[in-house]
Known about the structure:
Helix content is 18%, strand content 27%. The chain has 237 residues and is α+β, with helices and mostly antiparallel strands.
Amino acid sequence: MVNEIYAEMDQKHGDVEYLRNRAILTPLNEHVENVNINVLQRLPGEFKVYNSCDSICKGSTFSEADDVLYPPEFLNSLKFSGMPNHEIRVKIGAPIMLLRNLNAKKGLCNGTRLIITRCYPFLIEALILTGNRIGDTTYIPRINMCPADNTLPFNLKRKQFPIAVCYAMTVNKSQGQTVQNVGLYLPSPVFGHGQFYVAVSRVTSPTGLRIVVVDSVKDQTGLTKNVVYHEVFENLP
């Protein structure tokens, strides 16, 4: 899939149009991370690693033993949908996606794609690839974020860059975006109503869609599930 969608990666890794018109979609975040690491390893240059500062919000718990019960190593291991991981590995020239609204007037909204141009210790310089400010140079700082997950017995605060590498992205995150070349990578079937339709409808070129199915249905090669809840069509006029 990577060879097909990101062909000629070694020559065009810094081409804005090349990166804007390509994306690999997959259902789960764990598959997204695997694909992104695979592509990043092919990109020339050294990795820049950014680690978050994780802590428990004061006042969210009532135990003085929280520092013992929830050490930094445990907090760092937590992953949440819509939040950056503790460790972010990037390279200059890699495309990234914003995970938070930073400045709508400057085109820095949740889902905006950019390409990294410089990496500083506490700042990332990037070029905007999508939206109404294409071509503008911007700077992304670290910010404090709290997950929406209410299952934890405490409120986590993570200070990190609100970004994720986006050679690949989840199907849900791709909603509202269109590209010329789309690779749909399915190591497992889609699990939500309309996900398959959303994925295949992201492509704008008649020949730009590629699909790889790993776990086929009932041992039949090349088949996958298309999850549709027929109940939503009941009682329609």
